[in-house]
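Hi R.,

Quick one: here's the histidine kinase sequence you asked about.
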Amino acid sequence: MFQAVSSQRSSLVSDRTPERAALASRSSFTSRSALLPITAATLAAAIFVLDTLTDLEIAAAALYVAVILLSVRFCHRRGVLLVGGTCVALTIVSYLLTRSGSAYSGGINGVISLAAIAATTYLVLKIESAQAAIDETRAQLAHVSRVTTLGELTAAIAHEVNQPLTAVVASGNASLRWLAADPPDIEDANRAIERIVREATRASEIVGRIRDLAKRAPSATCWFDLAETISATMTLVQGQVKQHSIALRTAIETDLPLVRGDQVQLQQVILNLLVNAVEALADVGPGSRELRVSATQNGQGVVVTIADTGKGFGPDGERMFDAFTSTKPQGLGMGLAIARTLIEVHGGRIWTEANQPRGARVRFLLPLPAPTRGTGADHLEGGKQKNDR
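And here's the predicted structure, written out as tokens:
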């Protein structure tokens, strides 16, 4: 059932034009990014003119503080230092060019302005260093969480890898028999070899997804198909879904726009939510285990929903996102806390709801850069849905 859904999804995605949507989104993102340095340069030039034309008694150069604060939005450490140094140079040049006012008062104001610029630059760099340390700690914690989650899925993943390997062995033996026949059955042997290639590729893809999740790599932002990421992540829990006889339902819109973010981090969020749902369903009776995964687009962005018919979170569902809060006896309570952090890093939000008639529903929203589709109004409309009933 799940493989059929994946193949349907792949064929539907191939009919879309992701390159066109990505180009429009990337163009919008780039134009907004270029606007910040232009604004900072314009502001610095305006302050320089104001500081030069006004009396020395007026400390207009202190306004360069705003330029330094703005530079944090688009500059790294060296860039901020360069901006600060430029502001210092402009302050000194403006003082030398200004002829009106008291030189003594102007000197004092100049020193005050230079001190404000230097202090702001120093504090901004300290804040940036602290933020970098926080980001590094968050990345390490997320990596540990991914490896821990994959460790819990070891048996299921081994089963998923073993299936195509078993098919490879069977097809290899069959091809040997066809070739040893008198006369050799070349046509059947070719079909068996094609199955070997297909199943070996499937096993390689599973191993590749596991490797991407397990490796410790720097955060990499890119444009990617969220629907394909969801489908690829679901293959990692397919063994547990079969083991617990869980009915899997999917409803993924076929024309979801590409999203921008760290694909591995978002895959980790999806995997964590799927694992939590499967574990919740393992505690309910057979025949009433249902897992529903959906992805839709609304006016705010793309919403991914993972719902199960387990016992639910109870009245304090939002507390599940607090660190060290878990409904599992052996759980550390870090999975959902890390998931919330990763979603918020991407500018989104995540929340829980009660599923009907029972169970829990976790949703997260990823905002889209506006305009996400500059290639036509047809891409703005909600798409058809693919349902596995």
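The CA atoms of residues 136 and 218 lie 9 Å apart.

Cheers,
M.
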